[in-house]
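Shipment paperwork, digital attachment
Item: protein structure file
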Amino acid sequence: MEDCASRIRGRVQLTTDGHKPYLQAVEGAFGMDIDFATLQKIYGASEEPEKRYSPGKCIGCDMKVVMGNPDPAHVSTSYVERQNLTMRMSMRRFTRLTNGFSKKAENHCHAVALHYMYYNYCRVHQTLRVTPAMEAGLATTPWTVDDLIALLPKPTVGPSRIDRELYRKALGESA
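Attachment content:
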């Protein structure tokens, strides 16, 4: 949360789910300079006979203002839930019970960083018609995978070149 607060200027509105540690983390990172609400979904019993992998049915939501003056029309966790879905569908490392699931935290962190750099700087989004980095004024043109690879530090020991084809395959691009 402190990392998030350090990247934001001005007062923001934040919505989290009902996870209790967020309460202290948000206050510690933002102080009282935030419009903060929680949105907790209320689930009923699953109607599916196979309950092990079937989520319960959402039967309602409980919204609570924690601090500040959040706009009730914008209290939502939908954007972050959609972002999480995009990430899970784009990277099999987030899919449990598959052989792509990350087993080493360091490799997992690198894969997430690579995904978000590609997502924000290379991928032209249909709704924006540009990359998110271009929309935010951080880039003037879409980056290529070669542009991303150029950001990597040059190896000091070992192979003298980076296997660009490997990175292209990891990002789903053809050569």
